[in-house]
Amino acid sequence: QVQLVESGGGLVQAGGSLRLFCAASGLTGSPYAMGWFRQAPGKEREFVAAISWSGGTKYNSDSLKGRFTVSRDNAKNTMYLQMNSLKPEDTAVYYCAARRGALRSGATYEYDYWGQGTQVTVSS
Question: Which residue, 16, 39, 15, 18, is CA-closest to 92?
Answer without folding.
Answer: 39
